[in-house]
């Protein structure tokens, strides 16, 4: 159920935004609702202590807090233009970057696997981030997380439905590259694959202003990841490396997380490393289970690179889970 404190104000503000951006603010206003009831006023009238109280109640890292603070600043500026805010430079506008650094959770240089799972929908959604709208985006994150990528996103760009063996739960990457090992896909991934393939529209995101359109049509060209098109006719062109990076960049802007290919891949390795460690398997480049679950999945074939990968993986697991899980 959606909760909007002083709903008339918020609905008027939301109506000036496109659908995708409304989605973020509705989620954010649902977060502020209990605090607005607690203090008896709209968040644009919160003082600095009240804003700080709200932020301390959220499990946000620093980069994410920067993003949502900017969203609230946009709402405050709107309230000032509408002569709704009582004192212009009190509350959200007073919050500095140093203030946010003191409030935010420690910001590691590794994305916690649970963040990726929440964004893809595999774990409870809406807890720390507004759920992603596009299934194409969710599936993109999911595939990078489980090891699908290739040089300049070769695998992601060229994936077609024929590369998915749903009966045996396999992604047939060997059909794209004879030297590549096929990798497993779980039931959640299969369901997400079907949703991504069925998607015909791609919703756009713009935090600052209302777009002329809320979404674009997706190309119907037989590939899993498809370009959005503004024309009447489909061009049939494949999605490009640049377009995939742009989608990740917009998702990063949407969530406040550094959703680069490298960071998502590291997160996926950390997740698998934790699963192996929990089973009592030593994280060593010579262990067969590590070879199958990490090196084969993420296509790491060079022995020196494998050694460096394990060393980095242990450091990353230590940052995310603590020393006992990375030994």
TrEMBL record:
Domain MrpR N-terminal core-binding as annotated: residue spans: 4-80
Signal peptide coordinates: none
InterPro entries cross-referenced by the UniProt entry: DNA_brk_join_enz (IPR011010), Integrase-like_cat_sf (IPR013762), MrpR_N_CB (IPR055009)
Tagged with keyword 4Fe-4S: no
Keywords recorded for this protein, A-Z: DNA recombination
Source organism per UniProt: Oceanobacillus kimchii
Protein name: MrpR N-terminal core-binding domain-containing protein
């Amino acid at each position: 159920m959606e909760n909007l404190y002083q709903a008339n104000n918020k609905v008027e503000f939301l109506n000036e935004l496109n659908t995708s951006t409304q989605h973020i603010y509705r989620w954010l206003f649902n977060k502020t609702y209990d605090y607005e009831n607690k203090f008896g006023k709209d968040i644009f009238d919160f003082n600095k202590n009240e804003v700080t109280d709200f932020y301390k109640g959220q499990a946000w890292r620093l980069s994410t807090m920067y993003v949502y603070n900017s969203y609230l600043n946009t709402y405050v500026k709107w309230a000032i233009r509408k002569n709704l805010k009582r004192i212009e430079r009190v509350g959200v506008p007073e919050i500095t970057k140093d203030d946010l650094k003191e409030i935010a959770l420690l910001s590691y240089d590794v994305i916690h696997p649970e963040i990726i799972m929440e964004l893809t929908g595999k774990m409870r959604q809406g807890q720390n981030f507004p759920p992603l709208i596009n299934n194409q985006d969710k599936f993109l994150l999911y595939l990078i997380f489980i090891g699908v990528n290739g040089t300049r996103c070769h695998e992601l760009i060229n994936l077609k439905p024929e590369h998915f063996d749903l009966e045996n739960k396999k992604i047939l990457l060997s059909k794209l590259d004879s030297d590549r090992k096929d990798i497993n896909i779980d039931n959640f991934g299969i369901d997400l694959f079907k949703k991504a393939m069925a998607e015909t529209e791609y919703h756009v995101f713009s935090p600052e202003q209302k777009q002329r359109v809320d979404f674009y049509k997706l190309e119907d060209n037989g590939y899993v990841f498809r370009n959005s098109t503004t024309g009447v006719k489909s061009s049939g062109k494949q999605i490009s490396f640049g377009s995939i990076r742009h989608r990740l960049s917009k998702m990063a802007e949407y969530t406040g997380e550094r959703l680069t290919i490298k960071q998502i891949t590291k997160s996926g390795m950390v997740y698998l490393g934790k699963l192996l460690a929990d089973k009592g398997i030593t994280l060593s480049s010579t262990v067969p289970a590590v070879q199958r679950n990490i090196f084969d999945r993420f296509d790491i074939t060079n022995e020196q690179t494998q050694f460096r990968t394990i060393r980095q993986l242990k450091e990353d697991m230590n940052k995310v889970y603590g020393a006992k899980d990375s030994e």
